[in-house]
Prior knowledge:
The chain is α/β, with parallel strands linked by helices.
Amino acid sequence: MLPAAAVFRFPWEVNSGGVQEGESVRVIGRLVCYQPEESRATLSAQHASKEHHVAVHTSFVEPFNPIIGAQYLVLGEIENADGVGAMIRARVLNCVDGVNVALLQNAINEQRSFFMEREQTRDDAHAT
Length: 128
């Protein structure tokens, strides 16, 4: 059976506990650290003048050629790791350097608004 479709999440949402263990997610961030001996990478993103980090378990996507400082898109599942908190077990890890991150964030927010409006319209139609 295939996993559920992954939802775009921001690194600050992953760290704040806004996602549940086992949930499929897509997260974009700048690669700031890669530890091949531990199969662990760290992605970083800035929000509200604060730097947010997300740990990524990379054993399923190795070997890969990390480019420190480049933008990466990770697709995977959330799992709780000791001492780290929420970690993404990567199924896909792609370098997406050159993506306009601000524009992508706006598109994600617009998509979320659209889906919430659509759900509300459905709920109102079923209530009558």
